[in-house]
Amino acid sequence: MNGAESLLRSLVACGVEVCFGNPGTSEMHFVAALDAVDGMRPVLGLFEGVVTGAADGYGRMAGKPAATLLHLGPGLTNGLANLHNARRASSPIVNIVGDHAASHSRYEAPLTSDIQGFARPVSQWIHASASALTVGADAARAVQASMEAPGQVATLILPADTAWSQADTVAAPLPLPSRAPVSGATIANIAALVQRGVKTAFLLRGDALQERALHAAGKIAAKTGARLLSDTFAPRLQRGAGRVPVERLPYFAEQVVEFLAGTELIVLVGAQPPVSFFAYPDKPSWLTPEGCRLAVLSHAHEDGTGALKALADVLGATGSIAGHSVRKHMEPPASGSLTPESIMRSVARHLPEHAIVTEESGMAMAYYGLTESAAPHDFLTLSGGAIGSMMALSIGAGIACPDRKIVNLLGDGSAMYTVQSLWTQAREQIDVVNVIYANRGYKILNNELKRVGASQDGARAASMFDLQDPSLDWVALAAGMGVEAVRTVSATDFDAAFASAMQRRGPMLIEALI
Amino acid sequence: MNGAESLLRSLVACGVEVCFGNPGTSEMHFVAALDAVDGMRPVLGLFEGVVTGAADGYGRMAGKPAATLLHLGPGLTNGLANLHNARRASSPIVNIVGDHAASHSRYEAPLTSDIQGFARPVSQWIHASASALTVGADAARAVQASMEAPGQVATLILPADTAWSQADTVAAPLPLPSRAPVSGATIANIAALVQRGVKTAFLLRGDALQERALHAAGKIAAKTGARLLSDTFAPRLQRGAGRVPVERLPYFAEQVVEFLAGTELIVLVGAQPPVSFFAYPDKPSWLTPEGCRLAVLSHAHEDGTGALKALADVLGATGSIAGHSVRKHMEPPASGSLTPESIMRSVARHLPEHAIVTEESGMAMAYYGLTESAAPHDFLTLSGGAIGSMMALSIGAGIACPDRKIVNLLGDGSAMYTVQSLWTQAREQIDVVNVIYANRGYKILNNELKRVGASQDGARAASMFDLQDPSLDWVALAAGMGVEAVRTVSATDFDAAFASAMQRRGPMLIEALI
């Protein structure tokens, strides 16, 4: 057995089942080992942003890591933006980067680069294997590190000689750390604060946004009148009919100020205090209202679900939940123009049970509320602000949850970033519908230009935000990568196309010209 | 005047004329300033790999920097692979990365990241502006740093508040450093070594591969019998009919060993000693023949052109050049199958004078010799091994040299990496023909799998190298981004399509199914 096989067998032994990759020469032995070892599904991406975005999606939905396989420094750098998103989402990922053989690194060949330097800002754990004899153990430790709560990017650098040299071990899995319980004292303290009857909001993130935790939070809210909030960009939220509704923090600073006005206590459950996404001249970044108290029920690495249950018990919040989200029938659109609102009405109208909805579009975000009354679903957002995430992410989500329909709500500007994702969607027959909000521009930036106080009357500035001249043809792009696609220009067209897409399996793209 | 305008006016004053960018909220004031300041051409890329690749191409052909404009850490990371290539090509680039306002950075908002950490491995110079009052001077210094020989990536980080706050200066250009002359003693020393009559090869790179330097090198070769060599991947080489021919080092280690066998003296002119691109089990990385002497005529930052001229004088090499490349008429292809060889015959046959040819395909590399007898042209290669360079690079080359035809020779795997380049080619009406060697696979990796000694009989390994299931449709992809395209399946079809492409202006794509 060589090092590559030792690595692969160890990963499989540790429960890693999927490897998203785009390998090169330095990773050849790893690739060869794929056929010698059962239990690892290789998935090719035609660009590394697809690879790391898919690993993020897999981590969010499977709750355990996939491996990546990236080719040296440049392969890693192409995947960094989506690793940044994954880090912000606390997704577990075993990020494997091939390197030159140790004997070769000293020669500064063209592809030599500072892999550790590139990896450090996105990795909570980094290790470069020193020998084929240790790669198995290194892999087991990487899996363990990736699962340290709430989930981490663990980067394992694999020099080519550690893959091709003789090895003899398959590492056994290391114990996975469980989430640290929140102390009774902390829970009593939060209970006392909440019981003062001040205007309270719980800001939830991570495990606290999944159904079991929300059930406890819903009881607390019913008992105390507290609001339940999520960040603007929560990595994963379970919502829709029958679920406990959570209010989403708005995007812009001044909207958040208004939204939180009067709040006297914010209880953080795996979340950070709210701050604005960007800074603007003369607008606040720190958004906790003046005089409002901040209290931590659980840190991100702690057991937020357990803490919410314990808090519910201490508060005697054992009654029924005040208001589950209720399924609402959406009327079919009157024939009329296609708008972001009409799109979301159709999504809410036809979304099947337990779909996974991803959002990477300001125009989708504006009508987020409409899907509150849709069938229950998981809602995934752009956690780190690095656009080009969701089309790739849906691949991993689809592989983690093959029986669930995925709906990507994508701006055209965002979707171009990792447009190569469509090819992998087609190859792996991901059950996904990509809805492209084709407004042919970085529309949000036109707004931002005004908001930052910059003037907006010049052609050169405007040229940096519009995606016309030429216009993108999404039906052609999808066809070029083997994905069936349709263009819609009216609300009724879109409604019919979306309804039909929900009835079929496999990847599809709907260009919504708005 | 705000900081953004100060920055922009200072860049223009320092001779920067083009800004390749994909800005976001934190760069809004810079974008707004584009309309207030004359003399800067903004060019939008729909992905930052396009932006930095274009800047590399501009730097290689213009011999001075363009600016980039990247959005925070993720925008930078998306551009890192092509900055790696640019660093290896010694291309001058002023790499501008927006950052959060200083007042915002402390809050760890979603897009906050370690920009300096990401930038360091590709940047010879990094500075983060501290105030709007200094951004002009920072820009002038960045331009100067980018022009330190042989050319550098100078990264300037621009917090949003330095753009929007009040400034009052336009910085004057700083003196550009001239290349250091090579001492007379070094030249005399090399002359003495060369005159011993041992089997000598000059390995040339950088300025030494441009026409004036090659003229001197050609005289030296005629006088001494020395061989003239270039690296396998030279950033820019002037060649073709009427030029002094240079032998290209082969790609694989064992080929280089054979190629250099018997060489007793290698004179380095701006080049490093030859090493293999990758390591392989039981194959050498260091490729200087045993017993061969290495001598440095000029380092990369020194005046290689002047050194070659001085050496020619000392050697009395004032006679004529032994063998200029001679224009050869290529026969039109007999009707027959389209092959990498037939493609290159057509390229050589129809290439117009002073075209710019880029290469990012192993199948193109295999027939490199055929264009030696084509019309004189500049030949640009993938200097850093990070694929996804040349389709983007051609944008910058085209903007630097608007009157020259560009021919990109691209593997399909490579071309997918920054496929968004086609859109910018269309918008800017770059006069470029993209030839896609559509073998529907990472063919080079199938070879590499065998070469590294890994077995190759498994379906999983094979799936990581083939781009079928589904096949890419390049005509559709090009149409989706506004580029006219045609598919060719025979040698005669390709020849006709390529000939016709040489007669028209503007971007085009020819898919060559091989």
UniProtKB/TrEMBL annotation, chains A, B:
The keyword Ion transport does not apply. InterPro entries: THDP-binding, Thiamin_PyroP_enz_TPP-bd_dom, TPP-bd_CS, TPP_enz, TPP_enzyme_TPP-bd. It comes from the Bacteria. Keywords: Thiamine pyrophosphate. GO terms for biological process: small molecule metabolic process. GO terms for molecular function: acetolactate synthase activity; flavin adenine dinucleotide binding; magnesium ion binding; thiamine pyrophosphate binding. SUPFAM superfamilies: Thiamin diphosphate-binding fold (THDP-binding) (SSF52518). Gene3D superfamilies: 3.40.50.970. Residues 364-511 form the Thiamine pyrophosphate enzyme TPP-binding domain. Residues 1-106 form the Thiamine pyrophosphate enzyme N-terminal TPP-binding domain. It holds the Pfam family TPP_enzyme_N. PANTHER family: ACETOLACTATE SYNTHASE LARGE SUBUNIT ILVX-RELATED, THIAMINE PYROPHOSPHATE ENZYMES. Belongs to the TPP enzyme family. This is Thiamine pyrophosphate-requiring enzyme (Multidomain protein). It comes from Cupriavidus metallidurans (strain ATCC 43123 / DSM 2839 / NBRC 102507 / CH34) (Ralstonia metallidurans). The lineage of its organism: Bacteria, Pseudomonadati, Pseudomonadota, Betaproteobacteria, Burkholderiales.
